[in-house]
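As noted in the main text, all predictions were made from sequence alone. Below is one such record, for AEC family transporter.
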Amino acid sequence: MEGFQQQFIISVFIILLGYFFKRTKILKESDGQTIARIVFNITLPALVIVTFNQMEMTLPLVSLIFIALLFGLAAALIGYFAFRSADHNIKGMAIMMVPGVNVGLFAFPLVEAIWGREGIQHFGMFDVGNAVIVFGLCYFIASYFAKGTSKFYWRETISPLLRSIPFLTYMFVVALNVLDLHLPELFIDTAEIISVANMPLSLLLLGLYLNFSFEKSWFPLLSKYLAVKYGTGLALGFTLFWLFSDYPMLANTVLIGFILPSSTTAVVYAIRYRYDAKMVGTLVNITIILSFILIWVLASFVAYH
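Prediction:
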């Protein structure tokens, strides 16, 4: 337990360091785009390759793909009923942010620190299903409720998945495991060295993107959205946590996975469909802070159970 608390303190320190660099203008928030590209396209795929190398495919691991899909569908349905009477534009903006979560950037550095390679394997499989929700369902919701259009383009849904290097890496390493094929040792050793940078870079990036300002007029919507998102995640997470008590890592994954922060892709959709991108960005930032606190509390709870 002491090691776990120490890892969280280190993680908080690195995040605050990133925020300090932004405030002192050593780094700019715009620099985060470059760091994000390095994380998503280089260090995260390297971590996935190393972690999934020679991984034994089990039913609990595979089931996480479908659990993530079903959770996304259930969360979207709950979000629809919660915001069905809201203004058309607000409805689309709020509902699209409920189902998808941020696994690759937010969860992996913390999971790696707490549960190591086993944790990355489980959350990686969860992220396969989550990617379909983020790039498919959330995009559909954003486009359906957008002002002046109700058209849905399949090409714009499939294209991000086919261009997502982390998602393609998941598919590649899972296929290798199914076919019982292995990558050369030199390739794995190189990927392992690169993967070490994933945790500090991801945490620094979170610090760069932290923003504590928002307009008071947003408060009612922010409060309702957070209640729906975290109420849904905690209720479903604890239900499955007890149901999967015989499979500890599976139970931990759903409990933590369901309360991860909103996907940053929501900001891209907000810009694409002319929602309030500033409000969406603020919501994403708030969920980063709340999710970090909740993960610390729930991971402490898990450690005692």
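The two ends are 12 Å apart (CA to CA). The chain has one domain: 2-303. These features were considered when defining construct boundaries for the mutagenesis experiments described in Section 2.9.
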